[in-house]
Amino acid sequence: MSDDTDIAEALAAMGLGAPAKTTRLSGGVSCDVWRVDVAGRRAAVVKRALPKLRVTADWRAPPERAAAEVAWFRLVAGIEPRWVPAVLGEDRARHMFAMEYLPPETHPVWKAEMAAGRVDVDFAADVGTALATIHAATAGRSDVATTFDNGAQFHALRLEPYLLFTADKHPFVAGAIRDEVARIAAARIALMQGDISPKNILSGPSGPVFLDAETACYGDPAFDVAFCMNHFLLKAVWHPEWTDLYAQSFEAMRAAYLDGVVWENPVEIDRRVARLLPMLFLARADGKSPVEYLTDDESRAFVRGAAMQMIVEPPANLAVLAESYFPVAAQR
Length: 332
Fold this sequence. Notes:
By secondary structure, the protein is an alpha+beta fold. The protein folds into two domains: 3-100, Phosphorylase Kinase, domain 1, CATH 3.30.200.20; 110-330, Aminoglycoside 3'-phosphotransferase, Chain: A, domain 2. It has twelve helices and nine strands. It has helices at residues 3-14, 65-79, 110-115, 121-138, 142-147, 151-169, 171-186, 222-238, 243-259, 266-286, 297-312, 318-330; strands at residues 19-25, 31-38, 44-49, 87-91, 96-100, 190-192, 201-204, 207-210, 217-219. Strands 1-2-3-5-4 form a five-stranded antiparallel β-sheet, with helices on both faces. Strands 6-9 form a two-stranded antiparallel sheet.
């Protein structure tokens, strides 16, 4: 079946009409994404989860994760609708759904903004506040834990390709990484989105808009924070000339997030994020999904060296991590 036929049949099943024009968008490695124009309606985005991801390594994940993404969008919309695109329809049989299209003119991708030197420190704080609000609203809720009991999906999409795959490449720190994987897999604290990355966050006129929630799972919210804050470390390797702004953004997000932690002692989650973050930092050099901009041996070697040191001697908290990391990154 062709993509056009699949899209047309999915839209019909969702009751959204027939597509007048279909344009493929950048969907990353895990899904197909199209902008679809339908007569008489605003443009929509249609996503289809892939059973085999587009990476060099053999990376497979259940396509049923599309349902988890829709469920996460709908839950967050009940907390603050500005933080997610509106879901327009869902076709579970095809692992496809439709959501509103948010034009790049008004909703640029946060990653692109940071890479261009347009580093909005206040926006980083807004992301931290939003994450803490979502985590607080879902912490300790058995109904949410049941709905997002997606441990197998989270293992296939995050724990194995990022952490366990990396552990196999670095025996010296493999034990620490595997222990952390076991701890995360057993945690039942709050709802993780699982892919809080600047490439999945739009800088909207009313604050952040989160995309790509197919990794949503009930677990340790520290994963979301570490996964996102990792990118301030990585961007400082990519663009060392803006390291100070990335460091300010790191601090703004840290402070805003911890200020919203009400379900546990903030000191504890601060410590967990600081322990996990270096492992994810290493994974973006040597995991199944390395960042595309670490293109030279020197940059990858710097990431490995900094990450390994922090894994062996875990920083006490995020402030300590930042104090030791960013001055060194700025001098590269």
